[in-house]
Amino acid sequence: MHSKKRLAVTASTAAALLIGLTGCGGAPDQASDDGIGPITFASGKDLTGAMPQLIDMWNEAHPDQEVTFLELSASPDDQRTSFVQDFQAKSGNYDVIWGDVVWTSEFAAHGWLEELDPEKVASPDILPAAVESAKYDGKIWAAPFMTNAGLLYYRSDLIDAPPTTWEELQAGCEIAAANNMDCYAGQFAQYEGLTVNVAEVINSAGGSFLSEDGKSVTVDSPEAREGLQHLVDMFENGDINASGITYQEQESANAFLDGKVMFLRNWPYVYTAASEEGSAIAGKFGTAVLPGLDGTGISSLGGINLGVSAFSKNKETAKAWVEWMQSEEAQRVLVSVMNQASVRSDLYTDPELVEVSPYLPTLQESLESANPRPRTPNYNAVSLAIQENAYAALQGTASVDEAITQMAADLEQAIQ
Amino acid sequence: MSISPRVLNRRRSRTGTGRAKDGGLAFWLVIPSVAVLTLVIAFPVISSIIRSLFGDGIGEVPFVGLDNYAQALWGYNADDFWASTGVTYLFTAVTIVLETLIGLGMALVANRAFRGRGLIRASVLVPWAVPTAVAAVLWKWAFDPQGIINSLLGTDIIWTGSSVPSMIAIIVADTWKTAPFVALLVLAGLQVIPEEVYEAAKIDGASAWKRFVFITLPLVKPALLVAVLFRMLDALRMYDLPEIMTNGANGTATLSVLVVQSTLSQLKPGYGGALSTLTFLLIFVTAYLFVRLLGVNAVEQAGGRKGKKQ
User: Fold this and answer.
1) pTM of the complete model
2) Nearest CA-CA distance, residue A207 and chain B, Å
3) Which domain holds residue A313?
């Protein structure tokens, strides 16, 4: 019985291997000398269902350069793993990849991306912060496609005007306490969201993590300490509920949607859920730019850049496709159907779009001062160093001073 | 592991010519398995060890000898590595004790003849059938500050927000998940204990407790040790639960979490390779010691008994 079973296992493993092998060799080679021809666009899971619409628009106009849509996992980590494997195998199966803005430097540094023409994908119409995120070593390696910045959601029924500084935020906390609410929520679990939130307070206080070229560590500064201290203080005096240390995007949004918290730092997507019919806070909230130390704060920049694989066989088509994805035609679909933030600055004041998404002017203001997270080929190691040390400070297991000193040492190690 | 003694026993009973023929055929039958095993086990292990001798970075990677190992064992990352090793062994020790006790209890209950026994047996297995990642998400919700655990206990503990509560949460989830596995193996062991032995003991006037201690435990010991060995190998490479429930925060980053972080997330296959080789060695040595001290005996006993029955 046992040996039979084993034989069956062996046979099925062998069969699986065979299938795998033939699968590799089976792809038809459609390369052409001029780099024009059908391409594959590998993207994260399309939760909006609008991506096929964009692809159909392109395919109808370019029947000989058809784009095939390849939908990957919804998890950014898994997407990145797929891309890295494809690049390492130099397969060119993915002609165009959809990548989180923080991956551009890493992919470019490894030589996995094709350099793009700044005149075409980094024109003055494109938001400068988004263009910055596509830069590495002074060159442009990806076409900004979608962007994102943090907003401060506040309860407009309880306070008259949103706070612009941390001091004003503090005043709002007293009103929150009087209403039996928590004051502030953000993303403080140990994951990428913590890097985003910590980068915002440290940048807003005038600090930074790495130098412009990403080659030296700059976090060991009084400004960085002051920024982190702000969050630690809010945890210590209860302005951030102790359970806030477990919050990711959704948990923090839920706290605000349930009316349990006065201020929320989150991405624009919360707006839709908060204004929906049946929401406990519909009509009772507003959005503002994040507050800072003295004056408005600096948001971390999110978003998606489209990169052309260095191993693509049809690079000309791939480049034309990412340029078209930036066009007004495509970006209008992005804003109106996918409900995402455009990289084109002119769309933020378009009356038609503002009517659907009233937060757009605020978002534009936030985007104008937004900062890409540290740009380095070792982004994940850098982010982990920021998360681990900031988390220790928020938990109170390390003082702010110790946390920043250790963060600087870990960052030194991470960028090597 | 339980196969070879039986095969040996069967072989012994054959005639000389039969054995030779058997051997020749067996050799050819085994070849595909060996080839596949080499391809899927030996190749990755060896290539990972070779890779661990090279540095990380962009472009051509330099040969660095044992630097990656030094970095993990006493270099810059030593604190992380030893903390992970510590927490991995802590999880292993605590979960094995809990799972063995609970699994044994479940098996004893399931082995009794009573109405609805089939239902109990099936329902005991449900946690084992749930994919670990799904179980991790379920328990993450249960251990939410506003979750069901806090409301049942009437507490306000932020389970996944600090060190000890996080570890408790992970241990509870792991125990829930795999105690049924232990129960299953032990139940199989219980079922081969012949009823006559108990009857004889009863006639001799042995109490229920004595029957358990002097008959059940010694006879189920081989199965129990195999269950513990499997659990140990499994627990030492625990990954899903800490990764999903705490993201490795609060000192719950096990060795496997560390390996994945370095290799995949930070693209340091050299250092990650060194970590996974070290993890492999730790697990190997632990399992070897366990088998040497307790296990060999168990395998022989189990094999011997099965052999007699045939």
Assistant:
1) 0.84
2) 25
3) 33-148+302-369
User: Residue ranges per domain, chain B?
Assistant: 78-309
Nearest to A66 by CA among A35, A39, A106, A47: A39
Domain harbouring A84, CATH code:
3.40.190.10
Q: Cβ–Cβ contacts within 10 Å for residue A196, how many? A: 24
Rg (CA), chain A: 23
Interstrand relation of A261-266 and A135-136 (parallel, antiparallel or unpaired): unpaired
Q: Give tens-digit pLDDT for A90-100.
A: 988 999 999 99
Q: Domain for residue A172, yes or no?
A: yes
- Mutation target vs B (from A6, A18, A243; most B CBs, 10 A cutoff): A243
Q: A361 with A380, same domain?
A: no
Domain check: are A107 and A143 in the same one? yes
Does A168 lie in the same domain as A87?
Answer: no
Task: Report d(CA A102, CA A105) in Å as an integer.
Answer: 7
Supply A55's token pair.
Answer: 């692809």
| Residue A313 CB coordination number (10 Å) | 18
Q: In this predicted model, what pLDDT tens digit does every residue of B229-258 receive, in sequence order?
A: 999 999 999 999 999 999 899 999 999 999
What are the pLDDT digits (tens) for A383-401?
A: 999 999 999 999 999 999 9
| Alpha-carbon span A390 to A406, nearest angstrom | 10
> Hey, are the CB atoms on A377 and B58 less than 8 Å from each other?
yes
In A89-221, alpha helices (H): 104-109, 118-121, 128-133, 166-178, 192-204
**Helix axis angle, B217-236 to B78-111, nearest 10°:** 150
Higher-pLDDT residue of B24 and B53 is: B53
With cut-offs at 50, 70 and 90, classify the pLDDT of residue A258: very high
- What is the spatial distance between Cα B1 and Cα A71, in angstroms, rounded to a whole number? 43
pLDDT mean over A353-373? 90
Contact check, Cβ <8 Å, A10/B36 = yes
Fold for the domain defined by B78-309: MetI-like fold (1.10.3720)
- Tokens matching residue A196: 């985003």
